Task: inverse folding
């Protein structure tokens, strides 16, 4: 917190935060978020109004909690905190998060092949318990907190063999006020392209200000609207490496939802479904 922020923080502590905390019973210390990634901006917002969110991470195969943010370690909303006590975590050469400890399962019921796939002995110590291969990609920061960046199976490998985390790029795109949802693609391709769902509130306000119809089917063909969306993408590209930049984009026909089977119940996009639905649009982005 900067020096200029301290007076505001003191004011919030006296006038605002006690009222919010009282609505939650007055004794709440923290809320735990799990099941799906927590948008860091949402975590910071709740923390700023006096409701601390602690993001956790785990899997059914691991008891099910592997790590959780704790104030004593220092809250950082883009991490899932350090591992729990007696839980070992390391990062494999390909970036996969590996877990070992008493919390890890003994195996899947009557499924030896799948058990051997995810529970792999340590070559350096074959007598030790095997490592659980979580399927998640990430790293450990300088405070020992786990940072998850992607699912291993979701990694994009471009035509030069570079690995790109699509969820990182998509997350940055959806932090822009213009963009509600995004899906990027680029497997075995020279660069990334994107499918965007404009934020409906932003789109309505923009269209009204420009005197244009509030209809995506009409707006997406309008050069000025595409330029506004291009500006949002370019803001993100300015923070990305060369291989992560989204070179071209098009608009999805509708929002990604559970009902149209383009999102999972835990609000993750179904990448393989979107590739099928928008196969022609994706192909056209590489032809143009």
Result:
């Amino acid at each position: 917190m900067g020096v200029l922020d301290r007076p505001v923080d003191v004011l919030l502590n006296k006038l605002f935060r006690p009222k919010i905390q009282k609505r939650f019973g007055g004794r709440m210390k923290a809320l735990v978020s799990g099941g799906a990634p927590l948008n860091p901006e949402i975590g910071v917002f709740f923390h700023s109004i006096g409701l601390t969110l602690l993001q956790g991470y785990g899997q059914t195969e691991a008891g099910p909690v592997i790590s959780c943010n704790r104030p004593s370690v220092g809250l950082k909303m883009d991490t899932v905190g350090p591992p729990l006590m007696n839980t070992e975590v390391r990062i494999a050469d390909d970036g996969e998060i590996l877990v070992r400890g008493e919390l890890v399962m003994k195996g899947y019921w009557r499924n030896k092949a799948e058990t051997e796939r995810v529970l792999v002995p340590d070559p350096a110590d074959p007598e030790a318990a095997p490592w659980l291969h979580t399927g998640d990609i990430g790293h450990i920061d300088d405070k020992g907190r786990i940072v998850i960046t992607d699912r291993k199976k979701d990694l994009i490998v471009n035509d030069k063999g570079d690995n790109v985390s699509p969820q990182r790029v998509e997350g940055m795109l959806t932090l822009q006020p213009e963009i509600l949802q995004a899906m990027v693609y680029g497997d075995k391709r020279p660069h990334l392209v994107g499918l965007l769902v404009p934020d409906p509130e932003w789109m309505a306000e923009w269209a009204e200000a420009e005197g244009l119809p509030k209809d995506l089917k009409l707006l997406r063909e309008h050069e000025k609207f595409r330029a506004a969306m291009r500006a949002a993408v370019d803001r993100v590209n300015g923070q990305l490496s060369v291989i992560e930049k989204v070179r071209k984009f098009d608009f999805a026909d509708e929002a990604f939802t559970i009902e149209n089977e383009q999102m999972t119940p835990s609000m993750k996009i179904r990448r393989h479904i979107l590739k099928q639905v928008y196969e022609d649009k994706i192909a056209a982005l590489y032809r143009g």
Q: What stands out?
A: The first helix runs from residue 6 to 23. Residues 184 and 220 are 18 Å apart (CA to CA).
